[in-house]
# Entry
Amino acid sequence: MTPEDDDAQAARERWLRTLLQRQGLELEPARLAELARAQVLLARYTDFLRQASPVSVRTLGHTHDA
# Structure
């Protein structure tokens, strides 16, 4: 990973930690890092589906036409 990737990963982890804490939840640092990486993969896959799929992709209750 580059320093920029490390910074982006740390920012995602901070954002997720804050979001979870607002809900009264906590995760171990290793699990938080895994969740942040999974979030990135899911976002990339969703973007791929939006571009490649002739049908609508539903994300977070919103419909996005491909």
Observations:
- The chain has one domain: 3-50.
- DSSP finds two helices and two strands in the chain.
- Residues 3-50 form one domain.
- The chain has a mean pLDDT of 82.
